[in-house]
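Hi support team,

I submitted a single chain yesterday and got back a structure, but I'm not sure I'm reading the token output correctly. Could someone confirm the output below corresponds to the sequence I sent? I've pasted both exactly as they appear in my results page.

Thanks,
R.
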Amino acid sequence: MEINTNAFRGFDIETNGLYASECQTVSWSIGDICKIQRNDVDETKLLQILAMNCDNTGLLTYMGGTQYGPGFDFPFLRTRCAILGVMWPFGGVPHVDIMPIIQKRFDTKVSFAPSLDDLTIDDLKIIIKSFGIEGKQKKKQDYIVAINTMVSVEDLDRYILDTFPKKEKEVKGLKEVYQLLTGEDPGDMRGDQVPMLWKQYQETHDNTILDDIRKYNMEDCQKVEILWEIIQGCVPSRDLIPEIL
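Hi R., thanks for writing in. Yes, this is the structure output for that exact sequence:
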């Protein structure tokens, strides 16, 4: 049976930590459907609801975990399902992890102006001398503190850009890759903020915190779907063949 990869939906989870042995699934999102833990939905029920929202429509993840590598989402969910005694919800569902495709087929290197932390002590000494900063700095952090204290951000950025060569890095995260390939602002919130937000919700029961997590979860799914549209026209069709979860 031929699979229509154009109908695939983004999938993403948010958790309150990195280790499935001691952390929980906070929310999940499939396309424009997102469910989150709350007073009447614990993690077990959350995963059971996930099973009810799965069909044979394919899923897209970014670092979800597939034949290409371990990833995060699916190994985490498999472990939580086993611990909680919940049936695996994705039996027979086709899936593509787009992260390894992008890493293999696209140039994801970007240049950037170095920050003080990126510079060597010899570089920092050049800045100290150029701005006439006095003092007896010994450690790298001493130089950084002295420079930040005496030089405005605008003057420092301009000087670094004019004086030191740009550095290079390879972007790997969803937000960075999304910004590289679309030119759009990926937003400020990051996944590592979710554990803190979840803890705040448990302490305050402020439902606006749940709204923030849910919105972030869904936006990540939308980013994955947009990237999928981009890469389908740029890579060999063999890269797009899904696996069965």
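A quick pointer for reading it: The mean pLDDT is 92. Let us know if anything else looks off.

Best,
Support desk
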